[in-house]
Structures are given as structure tokens and as C-alpha cells.
Design a protein that fits this description.
Distance between the termini: 20 Å
Number of strands: 5
């Protein structure tokens, strides 16, 4: 839901009412603990773009008019390698999104994709719109790179220029488990740095005009569902862990059920930018917050149902997720609904 809040920030800045768009896509932002189905999120993405005629969600001084993403893709598909495609993307975005500067650097076997502000950060550098602008642009460039190369591009780590947001747990499933946060000084400028293996820049671009025609059906919101194969193993592991609750499966257990060796499973998850522990922690968080907000089940029962050996471990986990104890979180949720 944190991503939805950021996506709506531009509408609020323009004095618009997001209510009709949310109703049309079946999203209830009052339920902060609820997961948003990826298809509804993608639908909201496209509706906001068309409502504002701005594929950057009204987050910048200059709108990025509808159709920009299509021409970004057309600029990239004839590139021989991913490196050249990203250079073309950088030059194109400089024209349609001058408030952000994209660059790619290669040093000693490592590559860095940099997204830098070309404007002064607001006094509140944790503004949801500013955070989403970085999240969106990284996802756009990363997703497009995966599609152009015809495979997943694993990000080793990403440094985000703001404090850790409440929804940062999901970064492990979207970007990389190694997500770091370096807040920008108010009034200054921030730079996001995504690091990955430099050899990936030499991957050939495998898409052509025919593939692009199919890809553009549902774009640019399609980027949020793009390359579900690069999340396939994450999803399969998550589903197995959930089905087994309250029993806790180990990495070896999961590998055995998937007919893989533990080493292969670890490598597949690493390629998708995740890990067994990150998936398990994210699943427990989602289920725990939903139970705390939607039921009056005793805290001890919630902990047991989620596979925690004792209630104190669940308390510590909840404080790490939300900054407060389970009972406090439940009371705050109930108060917000009155």
C-alpha cells in the first residue's frame, strides 16, 4: 500500500480526487495492511497516467506525456547491447524528464545505474511522492532492461536517497534484499545507486519490433507485472511456506519439494534478487499485520499460527516491522477506523 500512496501523491498535488480511480480499480487505501493484487496496481498505474496525461504521475514540474514510454522502448530495441540501450534511455529521459538524470558507470567488474535529482529536494525528503519517483524510475529502467535482455537482471544492492520507508520490506521482492538508505539533506539533491555485475551490460538486446507490439499492450503499467518469471521462484517458495503454516519449513525442505538441490534453490532466489529468509520474513509480516488489524485473535495465537516458537520472538519481529508492539499496533489500527 505504500507504493499506492506514493503513486497517488501527484494527483493530490494537482488538487485531484483519487477516489474514482481507486474505486474503478477496486483498491481500498484505508486498509493499510492489505496487499494490493498486482493486476489492480497495474490498472491504477495506467489509469493515473491517462487521467493526468503524464506517465510520471504528476510528480514533476514537466509532465511526461502519454506515449513517452513507447518511444523510449523504440529508442532502445535497435541497440546492440544492454549498455547502449541504457545510454539511449538516459538521453531520451533527459528530454522528457529533465528533473532526473540517468547515468551508467562501469568500474572494475561492477556496474552502477544512477538516478540523480536535478532539482532541490523538498524540506521533507521522505515525502511519499519523492520516494515513489525513485522507486518508479528504478523499476521502469530495471524492468525494461530485463525485457530487452530477455532475462532477469539481478541487482546486487541499491542505495536509496531517503530514510527507510515503512514498506521497505517489500524492496527485497521488487529490487534486492540488499537495500540501503542514505537520507538526503533537506534542500539538497539525492542520488539512487543500483549496483550489478558489469558483464550484464554486454548482454545483447533480444527484442524486435514484433515483440514490442505485444509488449506495449497494457504498458507502461505492464512493467509492474513484467517478467513474472523473475519472481517465479520467489512466489513458489512463498506459497509453500504459507501452505505449511504453522509448521516452519527449512530451505532444505523447500528444495526437496521443488525437486531442486538447496544450492540451486539458493542460486535461483539470488538471481531473482531475494533469499529464503527475506521471503519467510515478508510472508510472516503480511499475515501478521492482516491478523492484527482484521481479527481479535489473542497475540499468542497469532504468533503460534505463524510458526513463532514463542510470543516474545513475535513481539520483537512486530516492533522491527512497525516500530510498536502487536497490541499497540492493533489499538492504533482500530482508532484509525473510527
Amino acid at each position: 500500500m505504500g507504493f499506492v500512496t506514493g503513486m497517488l501523491a501527484g494527483i493530490a498535488r494537482h488538487g485531484g480526487d483519487p477516489g474514482p480511480l481507486l474505486s474503478a480499480t477496486g483498491i481500498d487505501i484505508a486498509d493499510t495492511a492489505k496487499r494490493v493484487p498486482i493486476e489492480r496496481y497495474a490498472a491504477l498505474y495506467n489509469r493515473i497516467n491517462h487521467e493526468l496525461d503524464d506517465e510520471a504521475f504528476g510528480l514533476f514540474g514537466q509532465p511526461m506525456r502519454c506515449g513517452s514510454f513507447e518511444f523510449l522502448c523504440r529508442a532502445c530495441i535497435s541497440a546492440p547491447t544492454l549498455a547502449e540501450a541504457l545510454q539511449r534511455a538516459s538521453r531520451f529521459l533527459r528530454l522528457v524528464l529533465p528533473e532526473m538524470v540517468i547515468s551508467v558507470r562501469r568500474t572494475q567488474g561492477r556496474a552502477e545505474l544512477r538516478i540523480a535529482e536535478n532539482r532541490r529536494a523538498p524540506d521533507n525528503t521522505d515525502d511519499p511522492g519523492r520516494i515513489f519517483a525513485f522507486e518508479w524510475l528504478l523499476r521502469l529502467l530495471h524492468g525494461l532492461s530485463c525485457w530487452l535482455a530477455g532475462r532477469g537482471i539481478a541487482l546486487d544492492n541499491v542505495i536509496f536517497p531517503y530514510r527507510r520507508p515503512a514498506h521497505a520490506t517489500d524492496y527485497a521482492l521488487i529490487f534486492t534484499e540488499d537495500s540501503r538508505f542514505a537520507p538526503t539533506v533537506p534542500g539538497g539533491t539525492g542520488t539512487l545507486v543500483a549496483s550489478f555485475n558489469a558483464n550484464l551490460l554486454d548482454l545483447p538486446v533480444r527484442r524486435d519490433e514484433a515483440a514490442l507490439s505485444s509488449f506495449l499492450d497494457g504498458a507502461p503499467g505492464k512493467l509492474t507485472t513484467l517478467y513474472r518469471r523473475d519472481r517465479e521462484m520467489v512466489i513458489r517458495v512463498r506459497d509453500l511456506l504459507r501452505a505449511a503454516l504453522p509448521d516452519t519449513l527449512t530451505l532444505d525442505d523447500i528444495a526437496d519439494r521443488l525437486h531442486l538441490s538447496p544450492r540451486t534453490l539458493h542460486r535461483r532466489l539470488d538471481e531473482e534478487g531475494s533469499s529464503f529468509r527475506a521471503i519467510k520474513d515478508a510472508l510472516r509480516r503480511d499475515l501478521a499485520l492482516a491478523r492484527l488489524s482484521k481479527s481479535q485473535d489473542p497475540i499468542a495465537r497469532v504468533a503460534a499460527d505463524l510458526g513463532y516458537a514463542d510470543t516474545s520472538a513475535f513481539y520483537r519481529a512486530c516492533i522491527e516491522w512497525t516500530g510498536m508492539a502487536p497490541a499497540h499496533y492493533r489499538r492504533q489500527w482500530e482508532a484509525s477506523q473510527q
